[in-house]
Amino acid sequence: IEALVTYETYFFRDRHPFDTLKDFVLPELIQRRATKRCLNIWSAACSSGQEPYSIAILIREHFPLLADWQVQLIGSDFSSKILARARNGRYNQLEVNRGLGETLRNKYFEPQNNEWLLKEDIRRMVEFRQLNLIQSWSSLPPMDIIFMRNVLIYFDTETKKAILAKVRQLLSNDGYLFLGGGETTINLDDSFERVQFNKSVCYKLLA
Q1: DSSP of 89-133, one letter per residue?
Q2: Which of 32, 90, 200, 204 could lock onto 20 through a cystine, CB 3.0 to 4.6 A?
Q3: pTM reported for the whole predicted model
């Protein structure tokens, strides 16, 4: 099965969702969580780790106040092999060229031989877990932000509905779900509303 799966990913993929996270979603949730001072973020089907590490870099770059918050950033995938790569945080030149500018690369990575190693403090921000989306999610805490991009397209309609039903149970009432550009909850689960932020779309639970 692992040999048949596409692990296509890169840093800050499609950019607009990360701009939305930086400009709208995180500022709003930080204000709402000011008393509890905790945030839970999940990158589902994270492949070799570029997406959750992009979120970690974004937090480090733009939200220094979260340094003393309890921020749980989880990346999950069903493949133990690809998760080992993610935990290692080591990428080749092509991988760091995709989505990372020279400034961020030089700030958060160290050159080693012909590769780039993500600095340990950023690697420590992400917890990687093996998880199959069609099986139990009982090990996950309630989530404020879920990135589940470019994975629903691989499932049939009934499986998509089952996964979105589990998202509905896991996502906080004021949380945000990010799907891929070709994915939607429309005609699958009417518990979500579509929210447009500039060039990015995400989803919230209906009040």
Answers
A1: TEEEHHHHHTT--HHHHHHHEEEETTEEEEPHHHHTTEEEEE--T
A2: 200
A3: 0.95
